[in-house]
Specification:
204 residues, alpha/beta, Purple Acid Phosphatase, chain A, domain 2, five-stranded mixed sheet, 8 helices, 10 strands, 36% helix
Length: 204
Amino acid sequence: MRYFTSDLHFYHQFVYKKFRSEYSTIEDMHEGLIRDWNQKVRSHKDVVFVIGDVSFGNYEQTKAVIERLNGKKILIRGNHDERFTSAHFIQMGFIDVRDQFLLKCNGQRILLSHFPYASPIKYLLKSLRSRRKVNYYSLYPAYKGLRLIHGHHHSGPVTTFRSVNVAWDIHRKLLSEPEVLQLFEQNEQSRLSLFLQRLLSCFW
């Protein structure tokens, strides 16, 4: 079975305080996430795609957490994964590290990226307004007709145009491949989504 999640943010005080107040301490949050992960991922053959923003801990702290998570783990880098090299993440327990990943599923290709799709108009506006040294909006993938599984937005929405957001703080669990495909189908079958697909395809 293949599973998907993103934005675990181990050792991140801000995320703990803003999104995970059900935990009494940040250490309790770590244990809760590890427990919930391992209750779902039972087999060492299961593959889990972590779509960015794993941990704010140091190397040893992050490695200790990753080693406790069941399954084969593949990392799709997020904007908060820059402190470690791909080799570091492999040493921590990931079997592969990518910036993006093309997944084959039911005869279709699905793009995995930490960031949601960008539109040219929003990209221009964000670029003009941004005062950051690094404009993360420039990393958002352009739409090329593929379904997209992403994270980055902790508060949703769950689905947008041909996209599913698997951020942990939305679902509070890993999503299995059938669960993600069901979300795609539900979103794409709506009349509004079909209209947007035809309309927005004119702008990419």
